[in-house]
Amino acid sequence: MQAMEPAPTAPGERKLGPSAVIPAIIALALWCVYLLDHGLHLDLYQYGVYPRSWHGLPGILCSPFIHGDAEHVLNNSIPVVVLGTALMYFFPQLAGRVLLYSWLVSGLGVWLSARPSYHIGASGVVYGLAAFLFTTGVLRKQRMLMGLSLLVVFLYGSMLWGVVPLFPKISWESHFWGAAAGVVMAFAYRRIPSVVRDPREIVWPDEEEEEGPPAEVTDAAEMDEQGTGSWRTSHSWQRFDPEEPAER
After folding, report:
1. CATH number of this structure's domain 13-197+218-247
2. Distance between CA atoms of 87 and 15, rounded to whole angstroms?
3. What is d(CA 87, CA 79) in angstroms, rounded to the nearest whole number?
């Protein structure tokens, strides 16, 4: 006997609050580690990722919890809550895997390829979540996912420019590997359905030609409005003194 998948729910039928619990706990953990680090002068940056060195290998697991200052942890904890809540809301069956792979792939990529310095911060994970949500929204033709991702990009900062080596203090390598992991996972899991679906699918222009005129002409205008946005810095840090941390 073949198991039947549960029918997707409409956006208003699923509660948003429970989806925010785990992301809020993770953000609280980031702040607790930061306050302990700076309050007790623990110098936890030494547990960040230091590329191609054995003592920097544990940073693959530890670095997302370590941040350089209050602005750094704030700029990472807010997207963790927003994107994590969206991930739990739309894909509770995938949330753990997306978080884990974003974490491990970004850390391992930094360890293998980044510049010699301590790389710290949760930006690699944030880039993984954002890239997954946006790419899977495009693949699944879901307005809510794409709109949410663009909103976070607008509020969070210049995630686009964060994946190229423009700013010496920014660990662009962690951003790049996190975003790459998110895109790959979106393609790998594209056949796993979201538990929440848009009331109507997006119809791309080439599909309109094949299927006939769209039901409503307002869809294109809505997509144009969602496609605009600005990109600002994510305030992920990179310090090039081998004795100091590179934050991401």
Report:
1. 1.20.1540.10
2. 13
3. 12
pTM: predicted TM-score of the whole model, two decimal places: 0.75
pLDDT tens per residue across span 168-196: 667 888 889 999 999 999 999 999 988 87
Q: How many CA atoms lie within 13 A of 51 on its CB side?
A: 17
* Cβ atoms within 10 Å of 6's Cβ, excluding its own: 8
- Map the chain to HEC letters: CCCCCCCCECHHHCCCHHHHHHHHHHHHHHHHHHHHHHHHCCCHHHHCECCCCHHHCCHHHHHHHCCCCHHHHHHHHHHHHHHHHHHHHHCCCCHHHHHHHHHHHHHHHHHHHCCCCEEECCHHHHHHHHHHHHHHHHHHCCHHHHHHHHHHHHHHCCCCHHHCCCCCCCCHHHHHHHHHHHHHHHHHCCCCCCCECCCCCCCCHHHHHHHCCCCCCHHHHHHHHHCCCCCCCCCCCCCCCCCCEEEC
**In the chain, domain spans:** 13-197+218-247
- Residues belonging to the chain: 248
